[in-house]
Amino acid sequence: MSRTALRAFAYDALCVLLLVVIGTRNHETDTGITGILFVGAPFWIALSLVHLAPLLQRKNRRDPNTYMVWGYTVIMGMVLRNLVFDRGTALAFIIVATVFLGATMFGWRAVLARRATT
To answer: Does the structure show a pLDDT above 70 at 61?
Structure first.
């Protein structure tokens, strides 16, 4: 895995962490390590799979594009949250998670791209 791919994974994982911390604080749920890990786990698992998938392919080892990372993280994260972790996936949560993760995942990439051109 390249340095760029590791940085992308770390920043994307941080985006999920921000979503989880803000959400648990706003809803006054368990804001300790276990609460944060329990809420974030489905999304971190999905994010890990999206970032690792290109490494497992023999022909195409390019880094995943932002749309794939964002989309699969939200979709697989919600599916895992509902089916494996037995947590709710209310429509409002799906919308908030989709918008927040989209804004932050595209946002940090835009900031770095802007810095690279100046």
So the answer is: no
